[in-house]
Amino acid sequence: MAGLQPQGDLLKITHRENWKIQHERLHVKHRGHEAMHAEMVLILVATLVVAQIVLVQWKQRHQRSYNLVTLVQMWVVPLYFTLKLYWWRFLSMWGVFSVVTSYVIFRATRKPLSRRTPRMVYKWFLLIYKLSYAVGVIGYLAIMLTMFGFNVFFRIKAEDSMDVGVVMLFYGLYYGVMGRDFAEICSDYMASTIGYYNMGGMPSRSLTDDICAVCGQRILVDVDEEGIIEDTYQLSCNHIFHEFCIRGWCIVGKKQTCPYCNEKVDMKKMMNNPWERTHVLYGQLLDWLRYLVAWQPIIIGIVHGINFSLGLE
Fold it and tell me: Which residues form the RING-type domain (predicted)?
């Protein structure tokens, strides 16, 4: 065994020297091309600025179409890289998520809507939300512990623990985005079908005090009473809902207005304890990631196309 150690060191040295040689060749190849590189950087910056302006204007003027196109890209772009790079583990998880979510969407868009469907939909997407949150946090902790060298205590190689952390963080963030976006679409369809919600105008039905506008079912527990199975929650506009329904509507479905009168919901008041307020920050992080995954590859592709048409390498 002792005789094999120098050979291992020799292989490592050879690999490092190989990397240095390749690095030097890259510098030699691009030496004297500073003007071209500066032009490519300007093209990249200009494309990013223009794309950002276009996307912001699109989102403000036609939010529904923007969200739909972004969601389709979020669903398809990772699939392309998965097939190209043979990431079969991600593909299998993506397939299971897609099949179950497709069934949930099918149930949510049926007319007439089954009385059990709203809770089934929110339970599924709440499960996805909590799992993605937990997996993302574990992945982030794995990355941070590796950076501080704690992997040594578990006798795990730094590259292995870092890979696990990055993969778990990506899984958590990606499925968190997908779950929230699909939940928003289902929330719109179900609430519009029930009739107490209309995103573009007045509701088609009048809401009484004993009906939950999110699921359309009766409210059996008073606001001041503590329910055995579920509590009742009253918004600042005085409309009353099942607590599970309104939390699913606001936190999972990304709606921050009353399902009936569209008055702004105070999300800080809805959070029962400080730990739950991290869900708001997590939701904002997922919104930022949506842009990164859905639009960044397309913007980079446009930049490559411009560079190729101008003869820039």
Answer: 212-262
